[in-house]
User: What shape does this take?
Amino acid sequence: MQHHHQSSQLHQSAEAHEQSHHVIAVKTYLMIYLALMLLLALTVGAYFLDMGSHQINLAVAMTIAVVKAVLIVLFFMHVYYSAPLTWITAVGSLLWVGLLLAFLLADYFSRGWLDILGK
Amino acid sequence: MSASAHARRDDGRPADYLSDTSVASWLLTTDHKRVGILYMLSVTLFFFVGGVIAGLMRLELMTPRGDVMSTPDAYNRMFTMHGVIMIFFFLVPAIPGVLGNFLLPLMIGARDLAFPKINLLSWYVYMIGGVMGVWILVYGGVDTGWTFYTPFSTMYSNTYVVTAAVAVFITGFSSILTGLNFIVTVHTMRAPGMTWFRLPLFVWSHYATALIMVLGTPVLAISVVLIGLERLFQFGIFDPKLGGDPILFQHLFWFYSHPAVYIMVLPGFAVISEIIPCFSRRPIFGYRFIAFASVAIAIFGFLVWGHHMFVSGQSMYAGAVFSILSFLVAIPSAIKVFNWTATLYKGSLRFDTPMLYAMGFMGLFTIGGLTGLMLASLAIDVHVHDTYFVVAHFHYIMVGGTTMAYLGGVHFWWPKITGRTYSELWGKLSALLVFVGFNLTFFPQFLLGYLGMPRRYFEYRPEFQVLNVMSTAGASILAVGFVLPLFYLLLSLRKAPDAGPNPWGATGLEWQVESPPTTHNFHEPVLVTCGPYMYSPEEAEREYASQHVHTA
Assistant: This one.
């Protein structure tokens, strides 16, 4: 029984070990770094572009920011090479932020639909 | 095997986890059971500090005029400190920190939590926040209410708002660490054969609690950081003068703080789900429904926060959506109450102290939950918003629910934690005093609220006095009920361990090791061969006889 117990634990930790220590080539890191720097330049550049309205500028800046965050999470934080459970955790956390923003914006956008002050 | 060898002394008797008594051994321990005891000492301390403040408030409210406290401002600081201490330093850490830490590894057949050092760290982080909280109390307190609503908290309050925000921020991390530890433990440390559907419901509820802790608490941290930034550096986030929106703070705050209600009450469900089957001698009714209801509450609990803002300028459409979603979250809660009730049906009921607390919990939580539905209705909420109706409602959940469950759990597992039994007579008496005192304190507040008495005021109209006197009288009974266990439980420590491994004849792995358990919990590797709550007599005998056959 003990043997069974230990081997199951070892198996588990060996798997976890492999997942957390997946070796990523330096080249990959450098490429992601370059991509991030490019996107940074893009963010700064977009600030100086007049896109007609504030909202469009904001949307562009936020899109670039999201792309940057995704790159960092996937490669620098190793989620891309991780077990499905890590993916679920990462996507779940993102969904939760989405939830907060969605309901928050639902309130802001629907204010003033009724012609009652403060509603 | 090696684990059990370490746990034995030379004379062959295993050393229990309490045998090393040096201060260093306590302050540097990574044993989940000892960390649980550290939490027990600290939450008890904070509970009584918060309780004394509550007593002062009830004294003040005995008469319509302000006469006990020097100024209305002093009263504002009192109710704020009562809320902050009770919520952040008692209710949130109480059951997970004490009973969860102690029992979770035992229940799943593990040696400890997944990260024992992080577990100790969580207690230290909590204590840093707690000491800051007490420091604030001694040096004058905060007057914003535990909700820190802007723009008062960021622009006008002259009290220690930033210090309190930092204390809450720090304590939040203790909660995140505990949650993280529980999630990883449940995923990776279950003994062979301990499948997800063989987990005691205590573990399911704590798992759901841990999810909320990890997903919600960071948002609280962000909200209080933003308060600090606006107060210190005039960032325009919440203050309309600076281009901010005060309701944004309420959104961010309640995104954590409503789910936090479930952080407080789900562990209560955890305790009740263990006590009810044991003292009914029946397997729990609808195991999977109760298990999934916990997870459903954890998820749906995040979709209802806007019901705190029906009258504060939130859009009516958002209010309607939040109202409907709030009704939905009542379903999983009701599933639990109905299943516990069905477990009682035709059971061989025994009314020992833990069961009295559990029965009290069921009734009071149900009243708290149903009045929650009233508050979730848009129209009724306009009438009772910010009145004593709300105060009564959430005290039925927090005191009638969580605190009763915590006391029930402490009485249920006290023989396991300390190895001692306590006086049943005193136990039952205190449970009854808590139940009677609680109802006398808080039921009149429903009436007061419905009649229109607003909360958070120092004086009130004379016609409300009778009900307020009843409430204060109830609070004094409640106080006796809360102080009594302190005496008879501590007195029980003077005698030699007499409880035996399983005084209640309960199922569950924690009852199959010594009381108090040894440092390493189990002497042999655990193999689980059946589900929890095998309380039907024949089956229990058969299944539990084979569960601990160790072939190692």
The interface with chain B takes residues 1-5, 8, 12, 16, 85, 92-93, 96, 99-100, 103-104, 106-114, 116, 118-119 of chain A (CB under 8 Å). Chain A has two domains: 2-82, 83-119. Chain A has a mean pLDDT of 81. Residues 84-110 of chain A form the longest helix (27 residues).
